[in-house]
Recover the amino acids of this structure.
């Protein structure tokens, strides 16, 4: 039995999504840009998907630009805003705990004359709204913040940031890849100019995402070619992906509160069990003001890498930090930014639940995880590895 | 339930075939590639510029996919830096010539990796080494040379004791390299014809002296003079880490006859040179001596053969244990240059009895 507790990396497709894509695969083809009836049908299906995604975040379908996923949306938002910015705006404000698809483009811009201000989080992974707003002035081209942190699940309160950005005419981008499907999203309420969403985090297929672009926001394309997506994102759209994204969005729109409540109960149960059976286990992040599905825990005396592999061999799938190109695990930059030592970050695992997590999964995980921890801490205590570091 | 084995995979043909053979034999195989060095060695290939030796790991991963067993890259960089690279540097600074492959086996593959194996409930650790392990009727384990003597790697494995041998598998010990390549091709492994790795993995350009200089504090470099046995100074040198006993080239001296390094005195920075016949020694003192089966060495003097470098033949000798874990080894017929820091490994015929690290040569 496999117990999949890595939904923050990607959720399996929901049954309705699988069925919808299978059906569409048999009936929908062609290029939505084509003039003929087949093209017209493809276009109608694509636009329906766009409406479904728009509904999920309370946006107009015209503000939804389909991309290949969260990474492309973040790249488009950041490079697009930087390119469109006035020449006297050469500063970007962000946090130190963003996803690599935000951090790497920003580092690139840093090498091209932009100044990047990275606000450090507190020990619980909270990014101070005051610190962010204090850094926003007339020289700022873009403010980019994750709404829900991928590793610790902390929710950032962005309303005040949106106001501060609007006051000085800076663009405000929210990376909501980890938020969509876990918290209710209304772009008007959030006050953002740009927002990244991704399908596979909510049970849609991987390889499709969207960028919300507030009508009138100044954004330059980064993918050049045909006139698709109003010229902002060239390339024949991923039709089947969009269909799956649309279905997933509709499923989530209708059941968000129920699903979140159910997952919260399961996650809290698991946390309770682990806290009771693993002395010294530590919860990373804030207990309130977070998405309930994410548990980031430091397991005392073990290497997370060893624990992760041991759990995988027992059928429990979790994650840690990020994988490098060769597949080795790098400790989480989010945890070190939160003030954890490198050793603590190396002892930490992320457990993330999702739409298909069952009570039975949690019963098993609550039994397996402490048992594996005891074995690993005995066989390979981490302190001797740490002593030489 | 079939026994579970953790196979150390480098991406090379040997460890790939080892893993594949164990899988065929019905073991539950878990493949691991060890990330040992901080970054990929400099290379002309841009793909090498990523964080690990990406291509080698990908080769190992492809084998695992093909043979359908789980595969993980594990991060042992800190252990490797402290226990293998650190030792390598301090040995060179101390005027000795280390053998990091022996250290890596002792400290990483058969210690650190074994802890990981226990954490993963594996019964065995396996590698692609060419050596053989046998269990006798009395339940004692014996380490033997590989069937293919040209590939024999038992020299690097002398630190394995009874408890390590009991849980180690060398699936290639009875195979010839050509057979291994054949098996790799038959199994459809993409790396069947991959060339052998030769250099020390963390010094791919083979320039050990420069590596030591980069890794060491400048104050720790022992500069000094090249001198004759009689104490006559011949030249200045840039540090004892540039020399190894027996070395002839690169001494920076023009003499009428060939000169060789006889001895390196790190404390004074003196590198003593002499003629070829002055290199020969009567024997050596070894330290950190370990026996594969300590029962062997209850007696006073033991006749055996000793190998003082990987590529040297084993020489008949007499071993006498000294206090602690030191031993005195006397060559029966006089021996060649003895290089402090290198491993000396004790054999009787095909069997490895144990070994240690050369502390110093014994004069005739």
């Amino acid at each position: 039995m496999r117990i999949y507790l890595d939904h923050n990396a990607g959720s399996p497709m929901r049954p309705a999504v699988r069925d919808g894509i299978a059906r569409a695969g048999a009936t929908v083809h062609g290029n939505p840009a084509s003039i003929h009836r087949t093209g017209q049908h493809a276009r109608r299906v694509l636009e329906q998907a766009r409406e479904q995604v728009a509904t999920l975040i309370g946006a107009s379908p015209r503000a939804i630009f389909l991309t290949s996923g969260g990474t492309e949306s973040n790249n488009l938002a950041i490079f697009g805003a930087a390119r469109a910015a006035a020449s006297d705006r050469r500063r970007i404000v962000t946090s130190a705990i963003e996803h690599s698809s935000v951090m790497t483009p920003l580092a690139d811009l840093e090498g091209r004359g932009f100044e990047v201000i990275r606000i450090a989080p507190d020990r619980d992974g909270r990014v101070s709204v005051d610190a962010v707003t204090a850094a926003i002035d007339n020289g700022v081209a873009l403010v980019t913040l994750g709404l829900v942190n991928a590793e610790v699940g902390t929710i950032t309160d962005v309303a005040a940031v949106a106001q501060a950005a609007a006051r000085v005419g800076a663009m405000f981008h929210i990376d909501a890849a980890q938020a969509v499907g876990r918290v209710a999203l209304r772009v008007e309420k959030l006050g953002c100019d740009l927002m990244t969403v991704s399908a596979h985090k909510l049970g849609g297929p991987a390889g499709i995402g969207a960028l919300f672009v507030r009508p009138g926001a100044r954004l330059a394309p980064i993918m050049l070619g045909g006139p698709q997506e109003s010229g902002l994102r060239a390339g024949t759209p991923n039709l089947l992906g969009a269909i799956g994204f649309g279905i997933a969005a509709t499923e989530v729109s209708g059941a968000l509160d129920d699903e979140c409540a159910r997952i919260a109960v399961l996650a809290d149960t698991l946390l309770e069990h682990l806290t009771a059976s693993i002395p010294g286990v530590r919860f990373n992040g804030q207990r309130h003001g977070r998405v309930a599905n994410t548990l980031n825990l430091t397991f005392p005396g073990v290497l997370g890498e060893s624990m992760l592999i041991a759990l995988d061999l027992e059928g429990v799938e979790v994650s840690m930090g990020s994988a490098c190109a060769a597949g080795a695990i790098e400790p989480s930059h989010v945890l070190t930014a939160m003030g954890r030592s490198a050793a603590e970050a190396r002892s930490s695992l992320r457990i993330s639940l999702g739409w298909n997590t069952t009570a039975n999964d949690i019963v098993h995980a609550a039994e397996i995880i402490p048992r594996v921890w005891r074995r690993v801490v005995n066989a390979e205590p981490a302190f001797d590895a740490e002593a030489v570091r | 339930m079939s026994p579970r084995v953790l196979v150390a995979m480098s991406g090379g043909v040997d460890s790939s075939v080892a893993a594949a053979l164990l899988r065929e034999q019905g073991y539950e195989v878990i493949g691991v590639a060890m990330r040992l060095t901080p970054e990929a060695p400099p290379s002309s290939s841009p793909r090498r510029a990523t964080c690990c030796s990406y291509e080698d790991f990908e080769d190992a991963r492809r084998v695992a996919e093909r043979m359908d067993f789980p595969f993980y890259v594990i991060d042992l960089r800190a252990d490797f830096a402290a226990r293998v690279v650190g030792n390598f540097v301090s040995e060179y600074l101390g005027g000795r010539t280390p053998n990091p492959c022996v250290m890596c086996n002792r400290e990483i593959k058969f210690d650190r990796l074994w802890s990981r194996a226990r954490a993963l409930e594996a019964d065995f650790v396996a590698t692609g080494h060419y050596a053989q392990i046998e269990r006798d009727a009395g339940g004692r384990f014996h380490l033997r040379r590989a069937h293919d003597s040209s590939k024999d790697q038992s020299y690097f494995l002398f630190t394995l004791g009874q408890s390590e041998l009991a849980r180690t598998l060398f699936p290639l010990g009875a195979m010839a390299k050509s057979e291994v390549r054949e098996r790799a091709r038959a199994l459809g492994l993409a790396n069947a014809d991959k060339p052998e790795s030769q250099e020390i993995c963390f010094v791919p350009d083979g320039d050990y002296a420069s590596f030591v200089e980069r890794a060491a504090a400048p104050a720790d470099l022992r500069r000094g003079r090249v001198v004759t046995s009689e104490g006559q100074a011949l030249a200045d040198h840039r540090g004892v880490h540039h020399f190894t006993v027996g070395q002839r080239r690169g001494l920076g001296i023009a003499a009428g006859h060939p000169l060789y390094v006889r001895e390196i005195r790190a404390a004074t920075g003196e590198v003593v040179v002499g003629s070829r016949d002055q290199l020969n020694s009567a024997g050596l003192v070894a330290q950190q001596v370990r026996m594969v089966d300590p029962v062997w060495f209850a007696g006073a003097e033991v006749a055996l053969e000793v190998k003082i470098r990987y590529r040297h033949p084993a020489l008949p000798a007499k071993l006498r244990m000294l206090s602690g874990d030191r031993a005195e080894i006397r060559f029966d017929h006089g021996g060649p240059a003895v290089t402090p820091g290198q491993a000396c490994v004790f054999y009787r015929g095909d069997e490895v009895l144990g070994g240690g690290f050369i502390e110093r040569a014994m004069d005739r």
